[in-house]
Amino acid sequence: MREMRDSGIEWVGQIPKGWELRRAKTLFTQSNSKGNKIEVLLSPTQKYGVVPQSQLEGVVQVKEDTDLQMFKTIHKGDFVISLRSFQGGFEYSLYEGVCSPAYQVFYPTSPICDTYYRYLFKSQSFISKMNNLTVGIREGKNIQYIDFANSQIPVPPIAEQERIAAFLDAECAKIDAVLEKTRASIEEYKKLKQAVITQAVTKGIRGDRPMKDSGIEWIGDIPAEWRKTQLRHCAAIKSGITLGKKYEKTDSLVERPYLRVANVQDGYVDLSVLTTIKVTQDEDLKYRLHAGDVLMTEGGDRDKLGRGCVWHGEIEPCLHQNHIFAVQTSKDTLLPEFLEYLTVSDVGRSYFDVTAIKTTNLACTSSSKVLAFTIPLPSVEEQAEIVEALNTKCAGIDALIAKKQQYLTEIENYKKSLIYEYVTGKKEVKISVLAD
């Protein structure tokens, strides 16, 4: 077992005696040059590193007549400090091109193993160090190259850098394969849940019986005794409060919690982060939620637009923002829980996707579109049966998904720990290990 010594740096901890500690500026230097012979616009991403912007979805593309020679140069092997580096570390480029001047680019000026530092700069301990720089020194602003340049980082011998990089490449490839398989399994369970819900809200749960064509492509056949109707005939819709209103000093205001789009999730209300707002007493009464309201989002991710969840009065009183619709059903015709399942089924997903105003991966709808939502409608008694059956089936599937998610988290944490242990020298890569 090799001898260790205290690095004197909290995020690094102990390092092998043969390792150096050097300020980053002795290994790297910043680049501010502009333009590139290869005019490819690159974007730093936490998931993929630095990649051509054309490969990314949901990114606002630059205009065709934009002069890319005015953008910052990136060469293969450069590192980039992105705007969110305090969340995901520094990114590495395998491409030639240019990037937005908002990013900071640096490159090695001393002999190093690039891959070793790719792992170091994406390790959780390094990211925490960078996060402390932004919060502690710059109060949430972007990381500056000078802050990184003055930071001390471990410098193993080149041969050991290469051994660590090769070992982590091999081990992380195995771990990533497990992660990919687990994520795929989770997605399959989610698709199963969606299929179970769609089957129940369009075909019922009473077995074979006479069917009829609904006349709606994404609804298909429905039981003969069911009817179809627009939501306007069995529900009313209420918009929420618009933010940013100015009040007079003489206005009597009360402070109330209110829900934002982020609080409305598939099947539940997330109250982990709740914002408050000061309103008049009239506004307090006008925009209050009531138990049984179905919350539906006006805008957001295309795959979640119009998602519904029932408000059970978790907090009283509570208001809602104008980007959330509160749908109040006629309970003798439509159960709010049945409407919730309709919004997350293929019926709801297809309707809101077809009718939405879309911009790349975002979309929005309107109260008129919500009220025009055509739904299959069984009797209230059968709706109750379907809701009860789906509650049981979905709970079982959700439990399986949660188990997979827990395993996913454990593997991700193991990967982070593995990287940290080796890039800081807590564990040693034996030459015999790589030979095997």
UniProtKB/TrEMBL annotation:
It comes from Faecousia intestinalis. Transmembrane segments: none annotated. The keyword Hydrolase applies. Residues 16-186 form the Type I restriction modification DNA specificity domain. Pfam families: Methylase_S. Keywords: DNA-binding, Endonuclease, Hydrolase, Nuclease, Restriction system. This is Restriction endonuclease subunit S. Belongs to the type-I restriction system S methylase family. InterPro entries: Restrct_endonuc_typeI_TRD (IPR000055), Restrct_endonuc_typeI_TRD_sf (IPR044946), Type-I_RS_S_subunit (IPR052021). Its EC number is 3.1.21.-. GO terms for molecular function: endonuclease activity; hydrolase activity.
